[in-house]
Design goal:
With 749 residues, the protein is of the alpha+beta class. The chain has 14 helices and 42 strands.
């Protein structure tokens, strides 16, 4: 039996590898002899925009009119081309699809993870229709399961954004969103009667419960998707009777609503990308008396100072960057005197560190942080002030807080996401310092001993910093310059490039690829300063950091430009687009998903959703020539070189004679040299969604149309490289469809 099984396994292994070689060979033949012809945009209508003496010409501005029939024809043509392009690789896509589904396999029988609150165990299960939310009484092992919500009964293309229980645990509330939307419908279910309430709150962005079992606080947004109002709703009344509690009129500020862990206060958080202001109100306020709740401002807004508030006993605990180095600290202030002058420091992040979040329990506070781009979890004991670090099961990973609803406990759950295993859940007892693995799923048929994670540091172009890079690869990797490599990064908003599980990595790793996670400036892996050095007038650091990492991977013998690829999403797509124009010779292929490719158009139009909020991240090019020229020098759409001999000044912004000054305007700032037209360029795959409310899909259609026109020798009908654009009519910014849909798209990538 053993001999037969071994022979079968060996034969299957050999056939699979032979099939991969055959697919590669046949795919190459098809690419040569059956390559479909890329489409061409039906028209070019140059439109001039004059700002601060600069003239910007956009010949595809007409695409922003979504009702133009030529746009619909062009979208259809690009989607048809993409379909034909991938049709020749159906067998390869099927093989990769099957491999990734094998990776996703886990044990069918697995006890659900439970969270115990007020005598009930709450947990979720997964069905083929989505999540099922359940609870049962903890007192008896034979307690009947109670289904709170089953996704199978939701309308098609409807997703669950958030679920919450009232403080008395007899009303179950859940917020649903239609695909691509960011405002949803808030529903309520009476658990005592086992049926839903008639009332539904519409256009809800976020919500929390008050502490009286009948009041819900929720936020509503402006037409440009900025949450700006907090409303109070009483269960059993119509939405038209709801009370406006707070409104923020500053266009740069997002309003969010939350509650303290002890449920004594509701918090109204007014956050911009560089400052905060938090209001506290009594969670037990009685609206039936016809009065508004009294609100206390913890500290008035101060530019550059961010802070977040929780409550424990008689003190507020404040996470803030209020110090000259902008490193985050944990502070404490008495409830009767919360002014900034009375804050007392409990813990401070050192250089290269960032405290990201805190979670408060009766006896302990849990602090989640990053140190040198790696996670750190610490526990602070309220009574003694002692701090100890939690020994994590993995070094290279991403840590997330679990669903820790219980306040009076010494144990907390956290999730651990690592490159070579499914997401695991652990429970840690802060008093006894004992860790328990609640759920650990190894990858199906993966010999983890063959793979490893390593860290290298690369000198940045400015010589001021070293860029950390996490490498995922086989242990027997050789520095022969021949390893195919995928670089990933994001580099904006202080969002880190996490070291986590991605099913799409495994077909590559098993074929000897290196996955290089570049922790460039603009993220916050090395602290707040790391983020600030990659925004506004220092944004070019993000791009040069990525290029420096790519150059090092080539020079150190990891790979070569014909085997180096890169991928980015959203603002990471802007990174890909900028680098593609800056150093096209360094990469063989690039993938851009819902990419932010036209920041100039977006940031020059304050009526586009979120533009005013984004000024603090990217800058306002209408405010100064310096900011206009700087942004125009890296904006992917504006820096596409023109092989027809016109250069890129016609779109970056020509300087015109200033009528006010009576002289020629100052020369546009040049950050990146114009890439040579004779250089190699990467193949491109760009995907976007028509229901994306954050990055308009016409940014991608305009970008590709201009690529095909200006770089026809590469991306036109007779072009040397593939440029595939996929526009999904049902996709929002955060993806859509089933797991099968996502896996199939990863196979295409």
């Amino acid at each position: 039996m053993f001999g037969t099984g071994t022979t079968t396994a060996t034969t299957c292994y050999f056939k699979a590898h032979q099939q991969r070689r055959d697919l590669s060979f046949l795919g190459t033949l098809r690419a040569v002899f059956q390559q479909p012809t890329p489409p061409k945009a039906p028209k070019r209508i140059p439109k001039e925009t004059r700002v601060l003496g600069r003239v910007r010409v956009d010949e595809y501005e007409w695409m922003t009119n979504k009702d133009d029939p030529d746009l619909r024809d062009y979208i259809h043509a690009e989607n048809t081309y993409a379909h034909e392009y991938f049709a020749s690789e159906t067998a390869a896509i099927h093989l990769l699809n099957r491999e990734m589904k094998q990776v996703l396999r886990t044990r069918r029988v697995s006890a659900p993870l439970t969270t115990t609150v007020r005598g009930y165990e709450y947990y979720t299960k997964t069905s083929r229709h989505g999540m099922v939310y359940c609870r049962r009484r903890k007192a008896s092992s034979m307690a009947k399961e109670e289904i709170l919500l089953d996704s199978a009964y939701l309308p098609e293309n409807c997703n669950i954004k958030k679920v919450l229980l009232s403080t008395g645990h007899h009303i179950f509330s859940f917020l649903t969103l239609e695909e691509g939307e960011e405002l949803g419908s808030l529903h309520f279910r009476d658990l005592n009667r086992g049926e839903p309430f008639d009332e539904v709150l519409e256009d809800v962005f976020n919500f929390v419960w008050g502490n009286d079992n009948k009041t819900v606080y929720y936020t509503k947004s402006t037409d440009v998707l900025r949450p700006y109002q907090v409303w109070a709703h009483q269960i059993g009344t119509g939405q038209e009777q709801d009370v406006l509690v707070f409104q923020e009129d500053d266009d740069s500020i997002f309003v969010d609503v939350g509650s303290t862990k002890d449920q004594k206060f509701v918090t109204i958080n007014g956050n911009s990308l560089s400052s905060s202001e938090v209001r506290i109100l009594d969670a037990c306020h009685d609206f039936s008396k016809g009065t508004l709740p009294k609100m206390t401002v913890i500290a008035p807004r101060e530019e550059g100072v961010e802070y977040y508030v929780d409550h424990h006993d008689d003190h507020y605990y404040i996470l803030t960057n209020a110090n000259p180095k902008k490193n985050f600290r944990v502070m404490r202030a008495h409830r009767n005197n919360p002014n900034r002058d009375s804050w007392v420091e409990l813990m401070e992040a050192k250089d290269g560190e960032k405290i990201e979040d805190v979670d408060i329990f009766k006896n302990f506070m849990v602090i989640y942080a990053k140190r040198d781009a790696l996670p750190v979890v610490s526990c602070y004991h309220f009574e003694t002030g002692a701090v100890h670090e939690v020994p994590l099961p993995e070094q290279f990973c991403t840590i997330g807080a679990g669903v820790n609803l219980e306040y009076e406990t010494d144990s907390f759950q956290f999730t651990l996401n690592s490159p070579y295993a499914h997401e695991a859940t652990y429970e840690y007892d802060m008093a006894s310092r004992v860790m328990t693995a609640l759920r650990v799923h190894p990858i199906h048929r993966l010999d983890r001993s063959k793979y490893t994670c390593t860290r290298i540091n690369v000198d940045a172009e400015d010589g001021k910093v070293k860029i950390p890079v996490t490498l995922l690869h086989r242990k027997n990797m050789q520095l022969n310059g021949r390893n195919p490599t995928l670089m990933r990064s994001y580099g904006a908003y202080g969002v880190p490039t996490d070291i986590d599980f991605r099913v799409e990595h495994f077909p590559l790793l098993e074929r000897g690829w290196i996955i290089a996670l570049a922790h460039v400036r603009g993220g916050s892996e090395l602290g707040t300063l790391w983020y600030h050095q990659g925004k506004l007038l220092q944004k070019r650091n993000t791009f040069t950091d990525f290029v420096n990492v790519a150059e090092h991977l080539v020079e150190a013998g990891y790979t070569n430009p014909r085997r180096l690829t890169a991928s980015g999403v959203s603002a990471g797509g802007l990174l890909m687009g900028a680098v593609c124009n800056m150093r096209p010779d360094l990469f063989r292929a690039m993938i851009m998903s819902v990419p932010f490719l036209d920041p100039m158009t977006t940031m020059l139009d304050p009526e586009i959703p979120l533009t005013k909020v984004e000024y603090l991240e990217w800058g306002n090019p209408a405010d100064s020539k310096q900011m206009y020229d700087y942004m125009a020098s890296y904006a992917p759409y504006d820096t596409i070189p023109d092989s027809n001999g016109q250069g890129i000044q016609s779109t970056k912004g020509k300087n015109m004679e200033s009528e006010e000054e009576g002289k020629v305007g100052e020369k546009a700032l040049t950050v990146f040299p114009e890439p040579p037209l004779t250089s190699r360029r990467p193949a491109l795959m760009i995907s976007c969604g028509e229901r994306d409310q954050r990055v308009d899909y016409t940014q991608s259609t305009k970008f590709v149309a201009r690529l095909r026109s200006r770089l026809a020798a590469w991306y036109g009908p007779e072009g040397k490289e593939a440029c595939v654009l996929m526009i999904d009519e049902n996709r929002g910014h955060f993806g859509n469809g089933t797991q099968d849909d996502r896996v199939k798209n990863w196979a295409r990538e």
